[in-house]
Here is the input.
Amino acid sequence: MLTKGDCTREQIKKVAKQLFAQKGYCLVTMQDMCEATHMSRGGLYRHFGSTKEIFIELLIDDRDSSSEELSEALSKNIDAVLLFDGFLEKQREAFLAKDNGFYYAIHEFSFTEPDQNVFLQERFKAGAEMLSSLLTYGYEQGVFSVQDSETLAIHLLYFFDNVIATAPVLGFLKTQFEDQLKLVRNMVVKHG
Here is the structure.
């Protein structure tokens, strides 16, 4: 059961994620947080010492919730193809999002907080391990054709991250992205 303090922290993070999505990582200040949460400076600082601290906790929460969701799905023996289609759908949603500012805030964070490189590398590694475990699970079920799940997981994460980040600048079209999703699905999922 969440305490009142836990609920307050969750509310701060919810508001912070919206602010980071709107303004980017660098432009959000603790004053912005105070105004958006209707908290005093002292009240806010009781929970978080900086916007950087809030942002890191948001990234940890995202990683942990994704890991828990996948672990639960695998323990329930949910069909691997359905789970992989869910992964592809998340990529589609990120690509199509008109204002996917939080995604871009993550990139901004990575460039402006070099002291967090190890943390970000560990976060990427955790994501690759999750995707690799899904690919291995599907291979063991006999529905995926890919044997080297670790290499493919890393490739897919880099690929989708790059396409989603650069699409607005390079003019990558929705139809082109859909073609890539189909190609990836056809590479992974056995047919017949």
